[in-house]
From TrEMBL:
It is a multi-pass membrane protein. It comes from the Bacteria. GO terms for molecular function: kinase activity. The keyword Ribosomal protein does not apply. This is Diacylglycerol kinase family protein. Pfam families: DAGK_prokar. The chain crosses the membrane at residues 95-120. It is found in: Cell membrane. Its main location: membrane. PANTHER family: DIACYLGLYCEROL KINASE. InterPro entries: DAGK, DAGK_sf, UDPK. Keywords: ATP-binding, Cell membrane, Kinase, Lipid biosynthesis, Lipid metabolism, Membrane, Nucleotide-binding, Phospholipid biosynthesis, Phospholipid metabolism, Transferase, Transmembrane, Transmembrane helix. Belongs to the bacterial diacylglycerol kinase family.
Amino acid sequence: MRDSYIGKRIKGGGYAIKGAFLLIKHEHSIQVQIGVSIIVTIAGFYFDISKIEWIFQIIAMGMVLCAEGINSAIEEIADFVHPDFHSKIGYIKDVAAGAVLFAALTAVIIAGFIYLPYIFPNYEW
């Protein structure tokens, strides 16, 4: 069964779960984003947001966590390949961090669309 299609998928899933736990345990940025995700989830229950708002919120949270995870992997690879400062490695790391910024800004905009009407209900949106 280990070499079967299903066996390989199960083994791959195990690696993914291990990777997720490693991210949570060792990466400060992921820990911060999980904290933000918990706060926003609590806000979702508090404001009783709609199903479509939940969908957008979950997509936004997942997008940021994925971007942070990929950024962490890129940084680890870059540091492994070239531990000393190198302008190309710096460029690669900066671009990866920029992708996280795009994801985070998008998530903030989505949160604004969801929560501002609940926070300021009398404002004309």
